[in-house]
Each structure stands twice: as structure tokens, then as C-alpha cells.
Amino acid sequence: xxxxxxxxVKTKNLTKHFGHIVAVDDLSIEVHKGExxxxxxxxxxxxxTTMGMILGLIAPTSGSAEVFGLEAQHNLxxxxxxxxxxxxxxxLYPYLSGRDNLKVFARLSDHISDKRIDEVLDLVxxxxxxxxxxxxxxxxxxxxxxxxxxxxxxxxxxxxxxxTNGLDPAGMKEIRELIIExxxxxxxxxxxxxxxxxxxxxCERVAIIKKGKIxxxxxxxxxxxxxxxxxxxxxxxxxxxxxxxxxxxxxxxxKEGDYIxxxxxxxxxxxxxxxxxxxxxxxxxxxxxxNSLEKFFLEQTEEEANA
Amino acid sequence: xxxxxKVELTKLRKRKMTWILxxxxxxxxxxxxxxxxxxxxxxxEHMPEESVGELRSLLQFPDATGLIFSTARQIGTxxxxxxxxxxxxxxxxxxxxxxxxxxxGNRYKYIIAKLVAFIIAAxxxxxxxxxxxxxxxxxxxxxxxSINWDFITSSYVGEFFRMFGWTLFSLLPYILLAFFFAFLGxxxxxxxxxxxxxxxxxxxxxxxxxxxxxxxxxxxxxxIGPNADVLVPSIEMQGGPFxxxxxxxxxxxxxxxxxxxxxxLLGISLWMFKKRDITA
Lengths: 307, 280
Ligand SMILES: Nc1ncnc2c1ncn2[C@@H]1O[C@H](COP(=O)(O)OP(=O)(O)OP(=O)(O)O)[C@@H](O)[C@H]1O
Ligand SMILES: [Mg+2]
Hints:
The complex is a heterodimer.
Chain A: E1 7-18, E2 21-27, E3 30-32, E4 36-40, H1 47-54, E5 62-67, E6 70-71, H2 76-79, E7 83-86, H3 98-108, H4 114-123, H5 139-151, E8 157-161, H6 169-184, E9 188-193, H7 196-202, E10 205-210, E11 213-219, H8 220-224, E12 229-234, H9 237-245, E13 253-256, E14 259-263, H10 269-278, E15 283-288, H11 292-306
Parallel strand pairs in A: 4-9, 4-10, 7-8, 8-9
Antiparallel strand pairs in A: 1-2, 1-3, 1-5, 5-6, 10-11, 12-14, 12-15, 13-14
Helix pairs in contact in A: 3-4, 4-5
Chain B: H1 2-13, H2 16-41, H3 49-58, H4 63-94, H5 96-104, H6 107-144, H7 154-185, H8 188-212, H9 225-231, H10 241-245, H11 251-275
Helix pairs in contact in B: 1-6, 2-3, 2-4, 2-6, 4-6, 4-7, 4-8, 6-7, 7-8, 7-9, 7-11, 9-11
The structure holds adenosine-5'-triphosphate (ATP) and magnesium ion.
């Protein structure tokens, strides 16, 4: 349909102000065809606002969002039939049954058969409760029905805003498995989350957002890679560096502030301290260097704990 | 578009509130007709004989037709404000508005589909009012004498359909008023409060101004209610504001006023809805 070069979602300097609040600040991200992309950030960081702009619900203050290579604001009727979205709160009609809700939304898309409604109900394991009113569902059921609703028209791009919010661990697991399954089917997934481990489990690539700005982005595999750098603090750093530099099993030795960084797996910490002890050098501190994902999240939780 | 209208109608039909409002409508008709009948049976002492006679004829055909239409317009206005405001406002409260808009993305179509559904609902409500009204008046006619269907002539039928059209038409600006306030406040409460509030304030202001005389008495010509009253005369109006001043606007004026209010309210709603962000 369009020459989007395998890029499904692209934001260019996307910015949104609500009065004096800058919710999203000069955000540029790309989501590739077929990947599961994690959009990770703490509460109030601008995830939902970004999603709203991608879906045309919120008008950007400046910059733009493109979906399937089309500028979002002015091409919604061509874009939206290919997109399914699960909102932050499962907004469906409380007085309608699960099935009637799906019927209502099915009518708004073209050519969705009753069979398809049964299929998605099965997929989210809601068939047995399909006749009950939406208002009588538990939080998890509501969330699952919202997912069914987003999948009705078999969209190529699925955008989810914290779909495991309010679910118990088993419910979370089910939803994550479902997302992984959808990803395997070749769907492009855009997942908003504030849970690091969720993104780790489900996504291949991640962007971390804080106060509307991108902090890091990259492949989850690389960002999460832990324990390959050992960080030590010793009483005689220069002597220690000379000793460690001569070891074949240590791939690199660098100085960073008071610390020495060693290119070695974390489980070699004992060997390192034994080696240094032989020459009367003692490590005051020795630990695996935090990778960027964890570091960011630790900072975040610290801030929240202090607040 | 047709599908969207059907969806809106389905949503109305499956709501309990719609049916509750219908029950209120029916109950109101019953109470009004039987209360009036009660008065004709044992009139209060101070009530002049001719007023009792007038009331009697209102409970019999063909005069009853006017009573039924005017009642349907008045109670219909209130009920439609409630129905419209809830149907529009609750979509915000439930968060369903986003679900709907991310299916199609055309906000104008969403508004128009809703509006058409409301007009259809109003028409159905009006038909039901008429059926209830006719059944009730058949009963009172029989009680007050015997019923005679001779009044149904071709000119009566023409008049009947004209009244039907005017009644529906005069509901339109109030439907749009509730529509506007519900969108403005993004809630059912805002729609009901704004719609009913303005409706009542307007009726009070009209009475005060009409009695004030001079140019002040002309102001009601520019409001909604008095013009709707011209299209579908209220029964009380025979002794009401314009009757006393003898200064009712013409039918053409009234129709234009109702139309202009409707168009302007729709225009503002569309413009506002098109531009605004849908968050939360
Ligand atoms: N309609 C609005 N009016 C004013 N400010 C808003 C509005 N919507 C969002 N904001 C502000 O924009 C910022 C980003 O909010 P947003 O909902 O996008 O965050 P989020 O990352 O989705 O957070 P959460 O994890 O809590 O869902 C917040 O500071 C929020 O208060
Ligand atoms: Mg959010």
C-alpha cells in the first residue's frame, strides 16, 4: 500500500504540550515491521500520550507521527483499519454482553463475520462468559475482552497500553504469552509498559522514555546483557591494573573514575579478588556493572521512593 | 455510515435507560390525561364552567390531537435531553469513545451517525406517544360520551402529518443543545445539566420578558422555546405570553429560528469535537 520500507510506526520530533506540561518532548522512534517494540517508562512519562498521537486521538503540538508511511493525523481512515489498539482502561459498553460489545465494534469495521467473533472470544478464553454483561466481568476478563476487540479485524499493527495492568500474575502471564504468540504470527507489536521484565520477556527492541524524552533505545538483548563487565574498587589501582592487564581471561581493563572495569563475566569475581590478594591488593568493592536498562530503572525507583 | 447509524441505534435499544425513559413518557401521558379527566368529573369550585368545557373537549377528538402533540413535544424535549446527554456523555465516562474513533477515524461521521440515531429515536418516541395518547383519549372520549371517528378526514390527516413534522423538528434544537453540552463537558452530567438548565431558564426568562412589554417582549422571538411553541402550540399558551401580547412570531420566522439554532449548535459541536484531543 505504501513505500514505508518496513517501518510501521515512525515519529519525527513528536511533541505534545498540555498547557505548561510537556507530556512528550521531541520524540523520534521507529518501529519495524514484524517486531515487538517495547515503549518503557514510569508513570506520567508520556507513553499514553504518544500512543494517542499515533492513533490520531491527540493532535501533536509539533512534529509528526507516521503509520504505514502515512502521516497519521490526516490519513486515519486508511491507517486505522490496519491497526488494533488496547487502551489503558478497557473501555467497552458496560450494559452490553461481551459478545454484543464485539458485535457492535465488528459492525464498525468491514466484513467481520460472527465466526470471527467466536474465534477471538476463543483466543482470549472468554467464550464461556461471552453472554455476561461487561460490567460484571473481573478486571482481567475486561482486559481480555478489550484485546479480543482489538484483534477482531485481524490488524497488522497492534498497539497496547499496559495490557497487564491490574491483572494477577497468572493473568499477566497469559496476556504476555498471547502477545508473544501474536508476534510470532508476524504482527507488529507496540507495547507500552512500565515493567522492565515484561518488556524483556515480550519485546525485541525497546525505547525508554522519561518525562517525555527518549533516554535509551536499542535491542533488548544488548541493553539487558548483564554481568559482562565487572566493576572493582581497590586500594592500589595502578598496580592492580598492571596485574589484571596481563591476564588472558580478562578481555579488557579500563579505568572509570575510582573504579576499574574488567571485561569478564561476573562469576569470575572470586578469581579476580584471589589474584589481587596474592599481591596484597584488596578490593573494597567488587560487583557486576549495571547495564543501562537496569540502571535507568533503579534511578527511577529511587526517585519514586524518595518522592 | 449506515452501519454506524445502526450501531448507534443498537446501543440505544440495548440500554435500560432508553426503556426507563419510555416508561416515564407513558406514565406522564396517563397521569396527565386521567388527571384532566378527574377535573372534568369534579371540577374545583372556583373553576369557570367554560374552562371545564374546554378541558372536556380537549379530552375528545379532534381537539385532543393538539393536546397529544403539545404534550409529546414538552415531555419529549426533557426526555430527549436526558437520553442524548447520557448517550454522548457516557461514551467519555466509559472510555468507549476512543474505541469507536480508532475504528474509523472519521469524527464527523461519528457525530452525524449519533445525531441521525437520536432523530430516529425521537421519531419512534413520538409515534409511541401518539399511540399512547390516542388510546388514552379513546378511553376518555368513551367516558365523556361516545367516540366518533368522523373527524378523520383527509384534511385532518394532512394536518396530523404536518404536526408530526413540526413536533420532531422542534425537538431538534434541544437534542443539539444536550449534544453540545455533553461534548463540551465530556460527560452526561454536563449535557443534562446544560440542556435542562437552559431549557428551564429559558422558560422563566420568556415569561418575565413577555410581561415586561416594549422591546424586551420581543427578545423571546429570538429564543428557542417560544418559536417551538409557535410550531406546536402548547395548550397552556392560549392564555400564555404571546396570547396576551398578541405578538407571536410567524410560522416562517419560528421555523427559521429553530433551524438556525440547530445548525449553529451542530456546527459548534462538530468544530469543537474535530479539534479536541481525546485523552483519558
Ligand atoms: N488531558 C491532559 N491534560 C493535561 N495533562 C495531561 C493530559 N493527559 C496527560 N497529561 C500529562 O502528560 C504527562 C504524560 O501522561 P501520559 O498519560 O502520557 O503518561 P503515561 O506514560 O501513559 O503514564 P502511566 O504509566 O501513568 O499511564 C503527565 O504529566 C500527564 O499529567
Ligand atoms: Mg499511560
